[in-house]
């Protein structure tokens, strides 16, 4: 094995013109002596075998029949002598720094098992928009992208195998490609998940661009391609017990609604997280994000559990997360599947921090296609879409708004996802607009609503609960006004505790803020019961212990003050100074 060499394994089946362009680009844009090219030809009949036989710098394997992509790659891997293996489609044209950049990412950590490039033509979100019109322009385009930049590396749960660089040690550990996926498709999904299962990370290198013609082998017969795609999707599902497309989906539209500063630490829960693709995209953007998920499919949950805290809980049951815990809770296409989405929203709100946000996507039953079919007497359930068989609830924007407001959310914002509308359907939409009013026309076009709503509960929000005292107008943290009402209405500490326990969201914070406000008024008789009640919630609560110790010291209860202060596990300077002051009196 050559420790400094990369083995580039290329499969060919006809399309000689693509193969020549691919090989020549490797020769031109890759440092000599750092690679070997291995071409496995699957019984080409267009002169590929003859041309390859003439190339002195290529290791060739000629098959007498088309064994497909996985087996052909495995043949190439078996004869490879490099430290790293690069699976490359023959319809790829490589670019400046392409291999150097991929190797820098692959060798950046022992935890990285494989890396991939971006392109003009690729599935699973590895493609970018391009503006070139020929190969010369493409190479100039690539030069501007292919500048080593680790901030452009993203962790992914799967990589597409058109240009995939893998450590030899990883292949030795997990084995070669699974040949049940011959002639091709989903073998790279399978391999990606196997790499992750072995404890390695996958990186998409957005600092490495290569050109990809796309589906060169199958393009002659698109029907055959899609039949194979469908068959291998079923094979994958039988092997892994989840659907790769659905479970690995990344909801970029949902992630865009997370509006915290990228430097802020956040806690995010995704309900129905699948394999965690969306959560991982959040982590790529928010490096200090703590990821949590709920996923009923144990097999896809096992993948997400490799980088997130995933539970198999049912969101319609009691959840074990603390209250006021998450900055964001996201539910992509979940609410319509629930028996009681109204209660779920109310329960989830408890687990959001104040000012926390809930983000969801909900199919729009007012979409013109549903109304058109309904007017024609049809309400046909389908395997996917607006009337998916598993949907239990159906919503318009009006019902969505009512549901969120009833759950106590505020600051609702909406964005409509619109799919392409055939020209012949535009006339029907105009007729609907004439029938229902032009204000509804946009609702007929929206396929799915994206909704973001905020939890904005004042820490202390009560109504006519104690002796007719109306505190509904108080703003968050406005404890000065609360103290005035306590004094004027002569409320006892037990009455205050009753109200806090019933209405306060952050009980211990409320007790301590009230204690500080009451201390300024020298109302010691109220303070000690309130702080004692706070300690009954959490006996190690540092702020409560300090405030109680300070108050007791002021009340000349030095021994008792010292007892509480010494219970603080991590003592800051103010606490230690107060302890020292009390100790000096003995």
Automatic annotation (TrEMBL):
SUPFAM superfamilies on file: Nucleotide-diphospho-sugar transferases, S-adenosyl-L-methionine-dependent methyltransferases, TPR-like
Keywords: Glycosyltransferase, Transferase
Annotated Glycosyltransferase 2-like domain residues: 7-150
Pathway linked to the protein: Cell wall biogenesis; cell wall polysaccharide biosynthesis
Single GO MF descriptor: glycosyltransferase activity
Superkingdom of origin organism: Bacteria
Family to which the UniProt record says this protein belongs: Belongs to the glycosyltransferase 2 family.
Protein name: Glycosyltransferase
Annotated organism of origin: Paenibacillus agri
